Structures are given as structure tokens and as C-alpha cells.
Amino acid sequence: MRINLLCIGKTDDREIRTLLAYYTSRLPRHWNFEIIEIPDVKNAKNLTPELLKKEEAKLFQNHLDSGDMVILLDEKGKQYSSRDFAQKLDHWMNHSVKKITFLIGGAYGFAEEIHHRGNEKIALSKMTFTHQMVRLFIVEQLYRADQILQGKPYHND
């Protein structure tokens, strides 16, 4: 199985990059995990939010295959506990999903065509986080899910 994290823009913060590398290195090799950073749309300042989302959608679609399980990280998505998220990943793995691609949109979210393409929407919290922090949080939750699925001690159990 392959898991990708597809993001608009780069992570400039050195500390976040260090933590991303730390958690990425701890993910199981058989997940073939990769973070794909799509360059920001050129002249974004000159575009309306709707046009910017459409341009970002084109960039996202260049990295999506028709068989991908596409999960949008969206503030209006469903919230999961870490254990429930682990079970969701396990379900996808056991139902022969070949590639899961998590998407982190730009500042204005996703264009309508990306919402239609998404198989599911997940919210990490009701709170607002920077897109850089969201990258770190989802990678850490993937690591945590793996630990839960392996039956390793979790939290205060």
C-alpha cells in the first residue's frame, strides 16, 4: 500500500521539517509514505479565492490517479479519535486500497471539483491550525495509528 500527503506550498519552518522527518522515519516501510509539496500557484495574489482554488485543483489533479482513495483534510470533515482513525486505516488496508492520498488545501480550502473527487473528509480538530502544523499532525496520527494497529501500548492504557 502507498500513503501520500499532498500539500500546496513548502514547509519553511525548520523545526516542523525536523519533526516531519522524525515521524516519517518511524512510519512502516510498507506504507511507502511520501509527502508531495506542490509549488504555490504563481501570481496567487492577483487571483480571486475561487480562481485560486481552481488553479490549485488542477495541480492536485496532476498527482491523483483514478483509483486513489482521496481524503481531504477539511475543517468540515468528520472527526475521529486516534483509535477510530487507526481502525479506518486498517479497514482501507484490508479492503485492498492501493493508494491513500491525504490532501491539504491552500488558504481558501478546496475547489468544488476536489470536494467531489474526495472519498472522505477528515477534520483534525474544530480549531484552526497553520497548514504547516496540519502536515505534522496528520503524519504523527499516521504513526500513532500504526502503533495502535501493532497492539503497542497506547497513551494511558
How would you explain this protein's 3D organization?
The chain has 157 residues and is of the alpha/beta class. It contains 5 helices and 5 strands; from the N terminus they run βαβαβαβαβα. The protein has a 5-stranded parallel β-sheet with strand order 2-1-4-3-5.
| Helix-and-strand structural type | alpha/beta
* Secondary structure tally: strands: 5
Q: What general outline do the C-alpha atoms trace? A: globular
Uncertain runs with pLDDT below 50, 5 residues or more? none
Mean pLDDT figure: 94
Order of helices and strands: EHEHEHEHEH
Major beta sheet, strand line-up: 2-1-4-3-5
What share of the residues lie within helices? 40-55%
Q: State the end-to-end CA separation.
A: 29 Å
- What Rg, in angstroms, do the CA atoms define? 16 Å
Report the sheet with the most strands, covering strand number, pairing sense and barrel closure: 5 strands, parallel
Output the number of helix runs. 5
